[in-house]
Each structure stands twice: as C-alpha cells, then as structure tokens.
Fold each of these.
Amino acid sequence: MKEIQINNKTIRVTKGDITDRDVDAIVNAANSYLQHGGGVALAIVKKGGDIIQQESDKIGFCPVGSAVITSGGKLKARFVIHTVGPKMGEGDEENKLASAIKSVLTLAHSKGLNSISVPAISTGIYGFPKDRCARILIRETKQFFNENPNTTLKLVEFCLFDDETYRYFEKDL
Ligand code: AR6
C-alpha cells in the first residue's frame, strides 16, 4: 500500500480484490451493454448479487468513456460505479480511458461520495497496456483533485489484482 495527499485528499494504491473494499463505491470495468459476464464485472455481480445486474439492465447502455451508478447489493460498498473503458484497437484509446476515469470522478462527486476504489480499467479482457493505464488514471485523478479542491471525494484508491499492475501504479504515484 502506498498513498499521497493532494489538497488534503488521498490517492492510494493497494493490492487485492476490489469486491472486498470498504468504500462508498467500487468501480466496475464494464462493457457498454452492462452485461457483467467476465473479469472484475463478474466478480462484482457474484459477490454483490443479481440486483446489480438487474439495475444495470434497467439502465441498459453506457457509452465508452462514460459512467453510470447502481447500488452495491450485498457488497460492503453502497454503490457500484460502472464505467466503460476502450477496447485496444478501436482507436483513440488513451483519450477514451481518460474520459472514463474523469466520468467516474465526476459522478462520484455529484453523488456526494467520500471514497471510491478503482480497478485497472481496460487492462484485462480489453487488452490496454497496464503501464499506460496507470499513467492515465493517476494523472487524471491528480488533475481532478487539483481542479476540484472542494470535492466531496476524500479518497480515491486504485485496487490492483496482480503484482505487475500494482508496481506500475505504485511507481506512477
Ligand atoms: N479485483 C480487482 N481487480 C480485478 C479483479 C478483482 N476482483 N478481477 C479482475 N481484476 P477486466 P476490461 C482486474 O477484464 O479489460 C468484462 O467481461 C484485471 O486483472 O475485468 O475493462 C466486462 O463485462 C484487470 O487488471 O476489464 C467487459 O466485457 C482489470 O481488473 C470487459 O470484461 C480489468 O480487467 C471489460 O474488460
């Protein structure tokens, strides 16, 4: 675990399973149809329960680079923020990933949340390089805290599943 402070806000990197995190919202790396059939999405629905998929079905669609919110079901987290990162090869991936994390931060703030935990969006099934993901997510979060000193967000945590991804995030922080 490692953390830094910006304007009395914390950015943290930690290793582990995001479905265990005790924060206001965990972030899901979803697809646009919000069908949570693999990766971290499946783990979240398995532990949180079918209510998360049912609420996602009511929302129906989330464009790449945007974010939507459902309840957290049986998770410790009260909410799940679903964001859709780019698939490697579809084009303009870096800007889309930056847009995804910005959408997450803006939505969390607009809901008055204090703490969120975020996975390495797009670096699994979607094939985006882990080192570039770390750079973009950390850069955009620092920028958000610098530009929004009065945000309700006090903690943005990155919860990384494997050692290699953790090391990239730790280095960038
Ligand atoms: N906790 C934290 N991180 C995890 C966990 C976990 N329990 N499980 C996996 N990861 P992925 P994507 C990491 O594939 O690339 C799904 O099917 C994983 O090691 O979940 O954005 C969706 O429904 C990787 O670093 O998301 C979409 O169809 C990161 O989470 C598609 O995959 C993201 O991997 C989205 O692909």
Amino acid sequence: MDCLFCKIIAGDIPSKKFYEDDEMIIIADIDPKAKYHYLLIPKKHFKLLADMTEEDATLLGRCLKKIPTLTEELHLQGGYRLVVNQGDNPGQTVPHLHVHILAGQKMGWQPA
Ligand code: AMP
Ligand code: ZN
C-alpha cells in the first residue's frame, strides 16, 4: 500500500513514537503547528469517517479514549485540541484517517 502512514506503522519510515498498541500509534507531527503536535493514527487504513464500518467506529472511540490516559506523556495538562481533516477543503494531505492532537499553548484561531 502506497500510504505514508501505513509505512510509518510498518516501521519502513522512521517516526518519533509516543504510544503504540495493536490498534493505534501516536507519533510527533513532523511539521508541528503547536508547541506539542501529535498524530493519533489507527493502524487500520481508511481515509474518511464516511468509509468507516461499525467496527471502525468502535475502534476510533477506543483511540480517542486513549488520549486522556496519556496526559503526562503528551503534556496535555492545559487542555488540547483535536483536528480531523476530511477531504479537500480542510486540506487533508495523507489519505489515512488520523487525529491531530495540539497542545502546550493557548490557541489563537478558534475554528469553531
Ligand atoms: P493532514 O493534512 O490532516 O492530512 O495531516 C497530515 C500531517 O502529517 C501533517 O500535519 C504533516 O505535517 C504530517 N506528516 C507528514 N509527513 C510526516 C512524517 N513523515 N512524520 C510525521 N508526520 C508527518
Ligand atoms: Zn494507510
């Protein structure tokens, strides 16, 4: 599969890993947009929420539930923002569903 994140998951491309289990990895974003910027990437390849099966939805729930258990390791004490880019308008560049975790500073732009 010619997918950057599948290659990172397989270990073919190096990454700075903060967490890994059978279902997900959490790595540092290579081009951080906040003091702390991680990517939570489910190991299963799918691009969009629209592509998810019921099982994938449950998996994604488990992924999100993992985040607050890593508050110390990820420096999330002051709160954090999750971003999921979907498709062209928000500028999704990697077609493998991932959740941006932004933390460590006040965020000026209020997208919602
Ligand atoms: P998106 O634009 O939502 O698809 O997000 C893709 C993210 O992947 C961007 O924030 C990039 O900075 C990040 N990225 C691209 N290549 C790498 C890499 N090799 N390791 C870690 N993050 C990456
Ligand atoms: Zn992939």
Amino acid sequence: MKIAVLPGDGIGTEIVAEAVKVLRALDLRFEMETAPVGGAAYEAQGHPLPEATLQLARQADAILFGAVGDWKYDKLERQLRPEQAILGLRKHLGLFANFRPAICYEQLTHASSLKPELVAGLDILIIRELTGDIYFGQPRGRRQAPDGHFPGAEEAFDTMRYTRPEIERIAHVAFQAARKRSRRVTSVDKANVLETFQLWKDVVTEVGKRYPDVALDHIYVDNAAMQLVKAPKKFDVVVTGNMFGDILSDEAAMLTGSIGMLPSASLNAGNQGLYEPSHGSAPDIAGQGVANPLATILSAAMMLRYSLNQPEAADRIESAVQHVLAQGLRTADIWSQGTTKVGTRQMGDAVVAAITSTKKTITKG
Ligand code: NAD
C-alpha cells in the first residue's frame, strides 16, 4: 500500500505531520512518500501541482492531503494559485464523490454554537458531488454584457451544468452509503428555480427507485441551510451538488464545534481517495503550533476504511480520538472552561499514546 503525503501550505504541514505520526503508530505496512503541493510547490517548482506530484498521486492507493493557499498568492494568475492544485487533483483523478461526516462528539457538545440538546449525538454524512457544477462548467469568463439590465457593461459569468451520468453516479454513492447507516437520503436542490437542479431531482428520484429500502426526500437548498441550524439531527445522508455541498458542509462543520474536527474523503470510481480536513490552510494561525490536527487524523482513519481496507485500524484511530477528548485535552478552537488546552503536537502525541496503550492491551490480552 502506498500513501502519497501532500502537506501543502500554512497549517497543512503541521497537521499532516501529526496524522503521519498516528499512522506510523499503527504498525501497519505501508509506504509513505511526500511531495510538495500548492503554494509550497509554486515556490519550489513554479507550479501548484507539479507533474511529479500528480504522478505520485496517480500511483498511490490513497492521498493524505493537508491544505493549500495563502493570501500572499491572491494576486497570481488563476492557474498558478495554490487552490488550483486541489481542483486539479480532483479533476485528474476523477474524485467525484466527497464524503463529509459531521459528528458531534459527546465531549464537544458545548463547543458547538447551537444548544447542546440540538447537537448531542449528531451524526450526518454530507455527500457532495465534486467534479461538476458551476465550479467546472464552461463557458465562464469576463466580457461585455450582451444583454440584461446593463448591456455593454463589464460582466462576469459562470455556467452551472450537470449531465445525467454525473448525477446518477453520485446518487448511487449516496444510496449505498445510506444502506450502511439508517437508510435515509435527503437530496438538496434548487429545482424550483434552476434547470440543472430540476434534472438533478428527476435523476435522483429515478435512481432512488432502485433502492426501495432507502427513504428519499428532497429539500430546497435555502430550506436545508435553515433546517441544519434548526433541527440538524433530522438529517442522515445528505446528497447535493458541488456548490451547495461546499456551503452546507461548512455550516454542518460548525455544528460539531469546530471546522478543525471535520474530516473528508474524496473518492473516484476505483475507490482511490484523497483524504483531507475540511478546512483550509488557516494562514492566521499557521506556524504557531495551535491548529487542531484531529480533522486530519480522522481523515487518515477514513483513508484506512475506504481506500486501504483496514477498518479495524480506522476504528482504533477513532477510539483514540474519543479517548483524548474524554481526557479533557483540547486545542484552542475547541477549548472550554475546565478542559486542558494543548497545542498541535501535544494533541497528536496524545492520540499516539492512546493507540499505543490499546496496542499494549491487545498484546497482553
Ligand atoms: P480556513 O479553513 O483556512 O480558516 C477559517 C478559520 O478556521 C480561520 O479562523 C482558521 O484559523 C480556523 N481554522 C481552520 N482550520 C483550523 C484548525 N485545524 N484548527 C483551528 N482552527 C482552524 O479558511 P479561510 O481562512 O477562508 O482560507 C484560508 C486559505 O485556505 C485560503 O487560501 C483558501 O483558499 C484556502 N483553502 C484551502 C482548502 C483546501 O486546501 N482544500 C479549503 C478551504 C480553503
């Protein structure tokens, strides 16, 4: 098994180092190879996704990704900006299915911005289509407006589009995921206004007929945004397009206490996956050793489960994370009165210690 390790920029290097430490503590046999990506790759090699990094990612069974981006690259032309690396990897590897679980750990119910009773026991899986929609649709650009309210004025435009097969495959992913959970799928659309999402709704409904054991309901995206803060526990598996999923999954992240807790997996048809925290490179706290590494560590657990076929190892990481939270250890983003504030490295060390102690127990048993 080969893991491509792409730490990237900002806190990316700090949090990935902790996840690598945790993976090493499992005593599994896999090869890990590191390569630059994002701003770090632009500085070193003049491109955010150098050919050698892309080749490594293609050959690997899984990719552990940190985060890319920094405000200092904002003035670069678009194809050289760090964020193009992640978009490029998604496109080149066909990573169309993004899994973002939003789980509120019992110990963190008070870190959420919602009342504890609304989030206690929350366990939602947001499945976001990742390679289509308005982020990739052509044509796009700037021009003089040919018509509209101000003909001749400067305008910018993007294209929202989805083909039937793109919707079918993400719908299948959602229904299959729901079969492993509580057999409920909510499809989020804007079918009342957008052609693209009328097709989305039609196709998801058709695919749903092939999963009679899974309940399907549809909700408009504006209502979904509202319901997520009003009664989040009524959702289980949520499936939606690229842009709506981008926004709703960040909203769901906040329900769990901090974006620093939210892992993600992006899979292609062959189950090769890219695993990364849902947050960005956090330039505001980079280099201070205070970032929460748990989203990245939990992403490594998802990697073991979905791409490397090591579900017990994934369970061990997740239990170790629960254990350190139960011990009262918190990074600054999830800290509250009565808990112990720790830095990035101490949090990683504590997870390693929890894994090592279970290893000793297993060996003794
Ligand atoms: P961000 O997610 O980096 O940060 C948002 C806020 O959350 C900040 O206050 C940050 O300090 C905090 N935060 C994020 N992760 C944290 C962690 N692990 N522990 C503690 N606090 C954490 O989003 P942003 O500030 O909008 O973007 C910063 C850069 O990241 C931009 O260049 C953006 O383009 C990039 N970005 C990259 C990815 C990616 O690599 N997949 C995703 C989103 C944003």
